[in-house]
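Researcher: Next sequence.
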Amino acid sequence: MEPIYREIKKEEINLTLFEHFDRFQQVTKCRRKTDGIWTVHDIEFTDDWSSEDISLLVAQLKANAENNGFIYGAFVYGQLKGFVSVTPEFFGTVCRYLDLSHIFVSRELRRNGIGRILFEKAKEWARDRGAERLYISAHSAVESQSFYSAMGCKEAQEYNAELVQKEPCDCQLECML
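Model: Next structure:
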């Protein structure tokens, strides 16, 4: 069945929204910047959400919704299988950045174009609000980096210090709108 894409309303954001969402990712290689050079490293770990992670995610998405941010999802048989969020606050000294704060696709539906559609919707929303670029503090897993590269993302011209401090191993990217 083809996903149904739509905005996610604030009142929908709760723990049960994620009951059928599989975040699992087995990471074996990561792209990291070392001494100013991007290289791929053999780094193995499992990335998955704990119940605490989901609670934090719900709180972040609710706060974004309350601030009139963008939260958009892909649903299959009424179950959330992909989502993206963009915060509404502009930042950056030269560029008008908006932060693509989350984008995830449930494991069983990855590589089916859902991420691309969600990313394009986020770009459209940000562009309509006057942003020049989307900022992405992106997971360094090679698979994640391949996705962002395919979406046209490049290394950010200006790093957001708060996001770098929060996730120092992430790749700081941007996408022109």
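Model: The chain has a mean pLDDT of 96. The CA atoms of residues 159 and 165 lie 10 Å apart.
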